[in-house]
Structure formats: C-alpha cells, structure tokens
Design goal:
Layout lengths: L2 H4 L2 H24 L9 E5 L5 E7 L2 H6 L11 E11 L12 E7 L2 E9 L15 E8 L2 H5 L8 E3 L4
Parallel strand pairs: 2-3
Antiparallel strand pairs: 1-2, 1-7, 3-6, 4-5, 4-6
Amino acid sequence: MSLLKKTPRLVRNLLAVTLVAAGVLLIVLSSSLEEVAMPEGHGQVLFPDGTLVTVEIADTRAERAQGLSGHEPLGPEEGMLFLYDELSQYGFWMKDMLFAIDIIWLSGELVMDLDRELPPEEPPTTIYTPSLPVDRVIELPAGFIDKHGVKVGDRLDMNLPEA
C-alpha cells in the first residue's frame, strides 16, 4: 500500500496547500531579488572586498571635462566612472573640486594604478596621470582605497548600462 493511501486526507490537503504556498513565495521572492534598475547614466562597480559602489558615468567629452567639478561630496559608496574609447595616460586635475578624492586607474576591469587622498587645489596646479595607459578611471571619496584594501592588479566587476 502506498504512503499516500495511508496518510489521512486532511494531511494530504495540508501538504498540497503548503507546497503551493511555498511555490508562490518562491516566485514572489525571486522577482523581488531581480536587479534594481539603475538611474540613467549610472552603473555599479563591485570591489574585491564585496563593496558595491554606484557610479555616475562620464563617457562624453563634456561629461569627462566636467567630472566632479562643483559636485556635492560623494557618499561612502558613490563615485564617478570615466570611460574612454582607447588606452592612454589621461590627465586629471582638481579644478573647482569641493572635496578630496581617491583615483583608481583601470585597463578594462583591471586596476593599473592608484592615487590616494588628492586634495582640492585652487588654482589647480597638479595634473595626475597613471603610470600606464588606461581606458577607465574611477574617482571615489578620499580614503576609499585604503579602507577597502584596493591594490594594483585587483579586478573589479562592473555592471554598466548598454551603450
């Protein structure tokens, strides 16, 4: 005789309702865990220590020229990602900056160089460049690199909007 025939009808019905409820709950949870849509012009960068940073994307000449000049200070998990079409040793300065930053220089998703605790300058006199050609640059709040243990050779995982 099968186990189902030995099980009272009430227990079988309760089991069926429980399985259906668990299925519905699974569907609801999986749909709520889908990636949250990023605001237009933003992306996400996942660092090796598990920190997820939301970045404003600067991928046009005008956006890259403006950068963080005049921008309000960044939150602890906010930054700006500069995207270029080719590898080069791009120069950055602190024109009209209101706060200090760290800079991570990247080739693709690979960290090539780091600059820490760069102070605002008025007038700006220092131009910061990477030691090797890069095609991506991330500006973050000062102290981010040391706080999160970022080092040359790290690979960052990026979720960027489709071009």
